[in-house]
Amino acid sequence: MKVSDILSAKGHFVLTTDRHTFLSETLMAMVELNFGAAVVVDDAGEPVGIISERGIARALHEVGAEALHKTVEFIMEPVEFIATEASSVPDLMTQMTNRRTRHIPVVDESGQLDGIVSIGDLVKARMDELEFDRQNLIDYVTH
Question: How far apart are CA 142 and CA 128, in angstroms?
Answer without folding.
Answer: 21
